[in-house]
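Ticket #4471: structure output looks truncated?

Reporter: J.K.
Steps to reproduce: submitted the chain below (567 residues) through the standard prediction queue, then opened the result file.
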Amino acid sequence: MARSRIPPRLALLAASLLAACAAGGLGATEGSGRAAPSGADAAGTVFGSFLVGRFAADEQDTRVAADNLLSALRAEPNQLELVQRAFAAAVMDGRPDALRLARRLPDNPSAQLVLFGADIAGQRWDRAESRARALGRQGPMQALQPVLIAWSLAGKGQTDQAIALLRPLAEQGRFRALNALHAALIADVANRPRDAERYVRLALAGQPEPTLRLSLLAAGILKRAGRNTDAPRLLDQLAETHDELALAVLEPARSSVLTQKSITGPADGIAEAYVALGSALRGQGLEEMAGLLARLALRLRPSFGPALLLLADTLTEGEQLEAAVSTLGQIRPDDPLFGPAQLRRAALLDRLDRLPEAETLLNQAAAAVPSLPQPLIRLGDIMRRRSRFAEAAAAYDAAIGRLEQVRDYDWPLFYARGIARERSGNWPGAEADFLRALQLSPDQPYVLNYLAYTWADQGVNLERARIMLEGAAAQRPQDGNIADSLGWVLFRMGDLPGAVRQLERAVELEPRNSTVNDHLGDVYWAAGRQSEARFQWRRALTMDPDAAEASRIEAKLRGGLPIPVSR
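Returned output as attached by the reporter:
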């Protein structure tokens, strides 16, 4: 799914919410001028805890960061720098201390958002509105502030005023889709289906490729407005993407999306806004800011699936894989995002070398919905990456057997099964899969490359292979592997000058590839350039070839290469 992009200026300003937490070193004691603790042995000291906490925060280890910075703050409660950093760590780790510390940071935008959330949760609508208006319109507040004020007004029952505030922003401006969506949600909470429909259609018009979340919310609003054809059509369009997120619109999640309001009040709506902005910021590489907004959303709406998914993504980006697995495990089975979350958990478990757990999870997901191919596709991908090719092919077999109809966008599945079949010794099946993938999507360069190279290696279909590889090379002129395959086909066809040109270019593009260097050595030998051939073969041996390839290269170094080549 395409992410909505935010303007570069907003992306650059986004860090303003974290600015108070970004300074280095302990500063002077608040109001006292006293210097920070110091000493040669920092272990067990306030300064040591500060350093450990700061390093952990940089590494996104939120638990260790919060433990150490809060510990340091207890010993030195008046250090402003410690207050700022301990607050940030407490927010990022979901600690209740964040609210207490926020009251000490009147100039910190993140702290004010925490206090705003507390006012919303406590239904202190006037205070929440005042706090939102005081946030200003800098950085991300350009997008957030109008929505926060509108939901504060909605909390007071002032639906007309809330929608009026958002109306001009929903009709024009850089954040019109966001403002239109929240005008629709406010109208939906107030049981005004016609207003909700009007604004949700504006939101959809502002995003020609709507996100999963917008589609889910819009489908529910359209259903409640009596648009019984348009509502399910949005979900059908998602299902046709064949993406893992399509699981979110299968039964029973589909019925829930169409019949139950996802947003029931201001706290839910504000959490929705935080996640939307966080997702956009993550698309700009601002993972820390995205994680902060996900945490703020969860303070307002615990167990909120989109917030947990966003948080897990930011943790994954920070290589906090165990924490990401745990976060995804908090998404409830009745949440539309439960299915996609299971697939992501399985991928993370695989990265953590917890393969049996990943297999179990995917097999359970496959058994739960017998018509669903995605869990089996993911299982096949995991097995293929682990070189368990026969098991990968079996998983892909089962996935393909679940397709009601093969469509053009299914070509990667046949390509993946073709690789698994070829590597497990089933060339006829692999060849059929590659040809089927090309039938579905004729110009895929990597399918063309894989099939044509294998034909060249076998010495068959050489002219067709050359034509295929010339087409692939035209699409990917900087791909050394495709240049290597084309050179190898020309070698097999007896065009030594052409083979030398292509393989020398391939080595320029892939200088550390043992196979490419080995191929250039073979061509040099066939062209009578034995010294250069031996140099390339020796070079290939330094590039960690597999055992079989290394044995072949060593044999050529001992006895040269018979012509014609037989591999």
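Triage note (M.O.): checked the attachment and the full token line is present. The two ends are 44 Å apart (CA to CA).
Status: closed, working as intended.
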